[in-house]
Amino acid sequence: MIYITPAIKIDKNEIKLQFIKASGPGGQNVNKLATAVQLRFDVKNSPSFPDDVRTRLVRLAGRRITENGVLIIEAKRFRKQEQNRQDAIDRLIKLIRKATEKPKARIKTKPTLASKKRILAAKQHRRRIKKMRRSVSISED
Fold it and tell me: Would you say the pTM of this structure is higher than 0.85?
């Protein structure tokens, strides 16, 4: 079991790890060894989450989630398979923990009297500037 929060834990059988060849620098080591890790986790069908956490997790995952609701995390930061595996699991845990945080409700506020006065003063200032740009009409008085 992987413990995310005291209330949420994931069975290790729900996570599928696949080792793939990493791209980037590393010489022949990159061509020979499959050190990068592709973690797959089925978010939609996992019994571990309440519905609100699941929807926030899908939203947070963004492009990393497929149409079927499978979250894919690729870890290829390290040169060792075990370190990449742990990195992928840590990133999954971090993402789920972020999804468990409920967003704060926005409290609507009204502009203060002083801010309203500042806005009106700025508008009057702009009005005077634009008035000075107008062409002057010559009238015989």
Answer: no
Number of H helices, E strands in the chain: 4, 5
Contact 39, 73 (CB under 8 A): yes
Other Cβ atoms less than 10 A from the Cβ of 4: the count is 20
Is the distance from CB of 24 to CB of 31 less than 8 angstroms? no
What is the spatial distance between Cα 33 and Cα 49, in angstroms, rounded to a whole number?
Answer: 35
**pLDDT value at position 124?**
97
CA distance 91 to 139: 77
Q: Which of 61, 58, 62, 34 is nearest to 44 (CA)?
A: 58
* Nearest alpha carbon to residue 128 among 139, 140, 138, 120: 120
